[in-house]
């Protein structure tokens, strides 16, 4: 089974960090990330920029607006896709991620949602 792991953060709590402070935190993430990758079960790991676009159909028309949109201060900062036998194993693998291994994550509201992925049957959409 595949699981999408969404990494959240509180952008407000991180916005006052300088680039050098962020770089230090990211360097401290490396050993945890390597342990996660060494499981051999990470298919892809991505970080997301704070800006983007939202696409939706509204009143019969395609609408594109600035985004991303969240209803809280939390926003998705990254995502990774893993292969696991079941939710328990997926949680075990996701728990290796720096977001939940590093104590600094608590002060910035880091957390990870683990969600099963359902793929649509199409030869073009093989994940």
Question: Topology of this protein?
Answer:
Elements: E1 2-10, H1 11-14, H2 19-37, E2 42-47, E3 52-58, E4 61-67, E5 74-83, H3 87-94, H4 98-101, H5 104-107, E6 111-116
Antiparallel strand pairs: 1-5, 1-6, 2-5, 3-4
Integer count of domains:
1
Question: Major sheet, described briefly?
Answer: 4 strands, antiparallel
Q: What is the alpha-carbon Rg in Å? A: 16 Å
CATH architecture descriptor name = 2-Layer Sandwich
CATH topology name, in short, is: Alpha-Beta Plaits
Topology order in helix (H) and strand (E) letters: EHHEEEEHHHE
Relative strand content: 35-45%
Structural class determined from secondary elements: alpha+beta
Tell me what the structure shows:
It is built from five helices and six strands; from the N terminus they run βααββββαααβ. It is α+β, with helices and mostly antiparallel strands and 127 residues long. A four-stranded antiparallel β-sheet has the order 2-5-1-6. A hairpin with a 2-residue loop joins strand 3 and strand 4 (61-67).
Describe this structure in a few short sentences.
By secondary structure, the protein is of the alpha+beta class. Helix content is 31%, strand content 35%.
Provide keyphrases for this structure.
127 residues; alpha+beta; Alpha-Beta Plaits; 4-stranded antiparallel sheet; two-stranded antiparallel ribbon; 6 strands; 31% helix; 35% strand; flat
């Amino acid at each position: 089974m595949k699981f999408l792991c969404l990494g959240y953060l509180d952008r407000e709590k991180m916005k006052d960090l300088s680039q050098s402070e962020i770089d230090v935190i990211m360097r401290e993430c490396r050993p945890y990330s390597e342990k996660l990758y060494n499981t051999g079960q990470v298919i892809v790991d991505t970080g997301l920029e704070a800006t983007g676009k939202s696409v939706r159909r509204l009143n019969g028309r395609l609408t594109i607006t600035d985004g991303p949109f969240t209803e809280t201060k939390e926003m998705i900062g990254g995502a990774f896709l893993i292969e696991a036998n079941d939710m328990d194993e997926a949680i075990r693998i996701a728990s290796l991620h720096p977001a939940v291994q590093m104590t600094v994550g608590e002060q910035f509201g880091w957390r990870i949602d683990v969600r099963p992925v359902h793929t649509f049957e199409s030869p073009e959409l093989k994940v």
